[in-house]
Amino acid sequence: MKLDQIQGLISLIDKLEAFIKKDDFLKHDERAQAILVQTRSNLYDRRYVVSIIAAMKAGKSTTFNALLGRDLLPNETQACTAAITEIKHAAKRGEEVIKVYKDGRSVKIAADAERTLEQNFHLDVRASRATNEVPYIEKYFVESPVLALEQTQYRDLVQNFILVDTPGPNEAQVTDVDVSELQRVALEKLRDSDALIMLLDFQVLKTDTNATILRNIFENREDLARDQNKIYFLVNKIDTLQAKDGTVEQVIESVRSLIRMYAPIIQDPQVFAFSAKQAQLARSVMLGTATDEAKEAMKKDYGVKYAREVEMDGEFFTVVPKPEQFAAKLLEDSGILHVESNIIDRIFGTASVKLVDNAVDRLQQVIGNSRNAVQSQIELSTRNNAELLTIVQESKKRIEQLRQEGERLKDIPKQEIDALKQRINGILDTLVPQSKEILNTYMSREYVQGPDQNYLIEQVQSMQQTVVSALQVMLNRETDKIQRSVMDTQGEINDKLVKAFADLSEEANAIVGKKMNLQFQVFRMGDLEHTMTNQIYIDEENIESHREEQTQEQGSMMKDVLKGAGIGFGSGIILPGIGNIAGAIVGGVVGLFKNLFSNRASAREIHRIELAPIRDSLNQYVHDHIDKLIEELSANIRTSNERYVKFVDGQLNLFSANLKNQLDKIIRDYDNNKDNLEKHLLHMNEIKEALAAAEEELSHLTSLQPIA
In the sheet where 606-610 sits, what is the strand order? Predict the structure, then answer.
């Protein structure tokens, strides 16, 4: 991150805001002040989200605890996290964990007379799993210092940094890793986060699980290439490395090769190796929070590495130091400091480009608009009142004509949403054929038979679960494409509407310029007052966030409009019916068994299960849900278009009113100062000089040149 540059921009914003508020002429410009406030907020409060996903037992909770320097998340030997946990960086530890339910309720978890906050949080996680409460929990939320950020140069600038712990697949079950669920979470967090960390277990690197995970997330998804720079692979438990395994560098290169093989869209994989266990133990000792048991474990597992030879009476003895004596070195050797600094630098380095560009653009807008307002006063000083009134009235009429010409802007969302509908339909059209192919691949036989009825049921259930998993992987992939298409459409509409309103502004300036040789103050859509029903608007300031970062804090009409169909930014179940398809299919098909057995007379009893009815039932289930989905999406897309048209209409009215208000203000300012014109013009020139100095300072900041 260009820290000095951002701090310089914040300083310039402060000076401009103070100057405008103090100046008798500029202080009435509330919109300019609002833009400066919002721009400062964007630099300080921009939301950074780092999500971590992992297969079971990769050490995810230990990694989080190492990043936090506290035993907050349940570790591998306890009940693992059952729901999403968000940790927001704060200057000091929060005293409570907020448990948020999907129905909007929330419960506070805190320390009591018997247990610490951490202990009560762990107990709640266990209880939530034991009582099957997990499906009703939206997330856990807690504030805590994130040491990775606390120890960097960004700590005073970044106010909204969030670590997201995702529930591991099958953490409430005992079966193998549910790759489809890991795939769904990965795709969701790849859309919603600034960084997605995929945690790998060094001890099982060579198993098929990692290859399967990579293949199912990235296979045939060339459209994910644009997000490859925010994907990081962390190889945990590197402290178990032995001589036969090679060097750390060789392990990293082998992981790179694995990624290139199964996820070729990631051209230059960012891979790091570390030990979360080492880091967690070292930091707990350094922070004085380690228990005696933890210290003993640290000394036992790692003390020998830092032992030293001591001579006494001619004899040499090996002395293992106390944990406090080698904690700092153990932390450094864990590799976590290297991981933290690299990932954070990359995240903020990427974000700073957009932050700086947006801030510079907004400051240029405020300075330019203020200069235009001042210049208009200078230009109008030679006009008489009657002439000025005539010109203003003529300009108002022409602006109203321009407002009517702006009706064409309503075609922009319609065209983009029509194109979106075609893209979505193209995706949906592939679902039925793909589901049939999966059914035919994994359930191609007409029947299974044998003497053991229970074995046959188990065989069919296993076959069925394979089908359901394959269906879910396919549906996750295709619904992610729909999600991204919706987001891209939002960005395209925003871009085109912003440009269209800018073009209207240019036309308005051309109209007035011919009459009075001055320019309007030009405000963008995001600067206008949002007075429409339900506060539907496009936040032009953060278009790139919608398109590339997809943070959930931004105002988004597409999010509001399509939520009825389950399409949202970071929604848990992406599409209705599809998100729950696995459970629904399993529950429905098991009930078929009692009607599918037949016996055949022979030397011994043979049982048969006909597979065709099961296959047909699965196919019909998917088909029915896709039909329902198409119907819901079509209805919501129609609503989206209607609300966009309403939005554009309201913005055109605000645009027209804004221009007319500026004309009226010109008259008011002229009347207020015509009796003391010389003093007024002197004041205007003083403002111009101050604005020129601000513009020069901004130019230095933009070019990264030192400011005198």
Answer: 447-450, 606-610, 597-600
- What does the alpha-carbon distance between residue 194 and residue 551 come to, in Å, rounded to a whole number? 8
Q: Give CA separation, 226 vs 15, 481, 620, in Å.
A: 38, 13, 36
Give the tens place of pLDDT for each residue, 78-132. Answer: 445 668 899 999 988 889 999 999 999 999 999 999 999 999 999 999 898 888 8
Q: Judge residue 256's burial from the number of C-beta atoms within 10 Å of its C-beta, 0-12 exposed, 13-18 middle, 19 or more buried.
A: middle
Token pair, residue 617, equals 């039932």
C-beta of residue 359 within 8 angstroms of C-beta of residue 43: yes
Query: What's the mean pLDDT in 132-143?
Result: 91
Instruction: Answer for the pair 467, 435: CB distance below 8 angstroms, yes or no.
Output: no
134 Cβ contact list (under 8 Å, min separation 6):
82, 83, 128, 167, 172
> In Å, how far from its chain's centre is CA 489?
17
What tokens appear for 597 in the block? 């057995």
Cα–Cα separations (whole angstroms), residue 630 to 393, 439, 565, 624, 626: 52, 22, 9, 10, 6
The two tokens of residue 26 are: 């500029």
Query: Which helix (H) or strand (E) element contains residue 537?
Result: none
Termini Cα distance of the chain:
22
Residue 86's CB: how many other CB atoms inside 10 A? 17
Q: Assign 586 a pLDDT band (cuts: 50, 70, 90).
A: very low
Q: What is the pLDDT of residues 47-86, one digit of tens each?
A: 899 999 987 778 898 999 999 988 888 875 444 566 889 9
- Convert the pLDDT of each residue in 454-503 to its tens digit: 888 888 888 888 888 888 888 889 889 988 888 888 888 888 888 888 88
**pLDDT tens for residues 375-421?**
888 877 777 777 778 888 888 888 888 888 889 998 998 899 889 88
User: In angstroms, rounded to a whole number, what is the distance separating the alpha carbons of residues 299 and 321?
Assistant: 8
Cα–chain center distance at 322: 43
User: Which residues does residue 99 pair with via DSSP β-bridges, in sequence order?
Assistant: 107, 140
- 28 within 8 A of 374, measured Cβ to Cβ: no
Token pair of 603 as six digits: 């030397």
What's the per-residue H, E or C state across 251-297? HHHHHHHHHHHHCCCCCCCEEEECCHHHHHHHHHHHCCCCCHHHHHH
Q: Is the pLDDT of residue 532 over 80?
A: no
Radius of gyration of the chain (CA): 31
Short-list 308, 258, 232, CA closest to 63: 232
